[in-house]
Amino acid sequence: MRVIPKMWTRERFGYEGRAFSMPVRAVLPKPYQKPHPPMWVAVTSPGTELDAAERGLGALGLQFSSFSEQERKVAEYRRHIRGCEPAGEFVNEQVATVNFLFCHEDLAQGVETGKRLAGSFNYMAAQLLPAREAFPARSYPSLGLLPQLRQEAAGPGDASGAPEGLCIGDPHRVIEVVKKWESVGVDRINFLLNCLETVPQEEVLASLRLFAREVMPHFRQPESRAAGSALGVH
Amino acid sequence: MPLFGVRDVGPLLDGVAVMPDLATEPLTLPGADVLQAMFEIDDAVMLELLPKALHPTIPPTVTFVLWRCPESPVGPFNLAQVRIGCRAGVRPRGFLAASRCDSQAAADLLRARWGFDCRPGVVRLRRYHDRVVGSVVVNDETVLQVGLVDPTPISGGDLQYAANMNLARVRRESGERPLLVQVDPEYTFQRADRGRATLDVFVPGAWQAEGVRPVYPVAASHSRCDLTLPAIRFVTDPERPALQATEHVGG
Question: CA-CA 20 to 30 A from A108: which of A19, A181, B58, B138?
Fold first, then answer.
């Protein structure tokens, strides 16, 4: 982790370590971004976000959790990153999470289609064999991305019938949910838009257009940007 | 779309257990040893190994499970199972291809109350300092020799044993019909080890698992535990998707 940014930023680089060694050489290609791209750690298991914080890295959350649980994790992440020893040339203090997205003018239809999307994803994901099921070890306290998404997407719902925290429904509901994620400290959300073409492509595109038109402007305001937009619109 | 098994269970029904009812009470087997070894199998036949109710896992697996039970109401017994990894809806399960038991009394009990087919066989499970070895002999032929080598102590909490789906003929008020019976034992662990899985002998024909070709050892575990065979909670029609056809017993 600490060697990679040195390979990116130094003209010539050599290394002698426990895991590997290499003589001084030019490592190509160099990244376009200067000094280098932001570095993220994929986070599935509890506590990995703190490993990321201690190295000054972004927490690329690949798991769902409740708003309250996510708020606690983000607070701990930000507390730890203040005293970090950065692995890269700069600290990338950002928290990303993952979500489903389906936006429709009609709340009921948006929720119904979104639940169908999440349900299809969940059903297909369940057919895969997670490492924990095959290899008993302490290293896999989490089932990983797909089973966790399944659990959360099947969680208790609100009045609309949509599970808490899922970005599905009409623009008003999606705005509310994204604002809630923003309020608990999430900087970015990665959206899953479709699964095995469960949702026809034209509906996916319509959902994206509606999202761009009705939802994104709510996160372009200066105060939102200063706080770190949950939509990552910069 | 998800993949479904295509196996016709008709030819299997002659040899499966007949359950007089589903009113099973839990039964605890204290101090049991459990050896489980999982292998990835050639995926060419994975759909032909499972009934239409079940999905294959990706990748497909076979799991060898051996129990050594020193105490039971019918005396000590050993049981060996060959299970095909599967999903009932979204739930991880193992479809019981066949089982072998070395005690007639235990076989009768396991057939009638939990739907294990329990064919006869000499089943052995032994733990040594550096390995655990399980074997099954039928008519003087070794049909399974499986093991765990280089055991490493782990927490029992890290073990995950998927529940069985046992094909059985179940007598109900409406008559006898084939059902997949979910058997999900509870385990109270006293010790557990993980190690490399080994397979020295496997005769698929002795386990109604023709075409199963283990191609990669995934992992093996051994545990000492109190094993409680449960009350039957769920059954499903082997011919229809489990998500649609699963029935809560008594519900």
Answer: A181
A99 and A18 in a common domain: no
Mean pLDDT of chain B: 96
**CA gap B188, B46 in Å, rounded:** 33
Cα radius of gyration rounded to whole Å, chain B: 17
pLDDT in tens, B19-76: 999 999 999 999 999 999 999 999 889 999 999 999 999 999 999 999 999 999 999 9
Q: Which domain holds residue A103?
A: 95-128+141-227
Spell out which residues of chain B touch residue A127, defining contact as CB-CB under 8 Å: 2-3, 55-58, 87
Assess whether pLDDT exceeds 60 at residue A123. Answer: yes
SS (H, E, C) B41-53: ECHHHHHHHCECC
CATH code of the domain containing A181: 3.20.20.30
Q: Tens digit of pLDDT for each residue in A34-79?
A: 999 999 999 988 889 999 999 999 999 877 678 888 899 999 999 9
Asked whether residue A114 is assigned to any structural domain, the reply reads yes
**Cβ-based contacts of B218 with chain A (< 8 Å):** 134-135
Of A126, A132, A137, the CB nearest to B194: A137
Asked if residue A26 belongs to a domain, the reply is yes
* pLDDT for B222 beyond 90: yes
- One domain, residues A25 and A109: no
Compute the average pLDDT of residues B137-156: 97
Structural domains present in chain B: 10-248 (2.40.400.10)
Instruction: Compare CB distances from B218 to A128, A134, A140 and report the shortest one's residue.
Output: A134
Question: What are the tokens at A127?
Answer: 């057919």
A3 burial type by CB count under 10 A (0-12 exposed, 13-18 middle, 19+ buried)? middle
Q: Which residues of A touch B63 (CB under 8 A)?
A: none
Residues of B in contact with A133 (CB under 8 A): 92, 160, 162
Phi, psi of B6 (to 5 degrees): -125, 10
**Cβ separation of B87 and A132 shorter than 8 Å?**
no
Number of domains in chain A: 2
Do the domain assignments include residue A25?
Answer: yes
In this prediction the pTM is 0.84
| Closest chain A residue to the Cα of B156, Cα to Cα | A136
Name the residue facing A136 among B55, B58, B160 (closest C-beta). B160
Residues A4 and A112 in one domain: no
Residues A103 and A213 in one domain: yes
Question: Which residue is closest to A132 within chain B, CA to CA?
Answer: B160
Q: What does the alpha-carbon distance between residue B134 and residue B123 come to, in Å, rounded to a whole number?
A: 7
Q: Assess if residue A43 is contained within a domain.
A: no
Minimal CA separation from A210 to chain B, in Å: 28
Q: Please indicate, yes or no, whether residues A101 and A17 belong to a single structural domain of this protein.
A: no
Q: Sign of torsion, CA B218 B50 B33 B121? A: negative
> Nearest-CA residue of chain A relative to B94?
A133
ipTM of the complex: 0.80
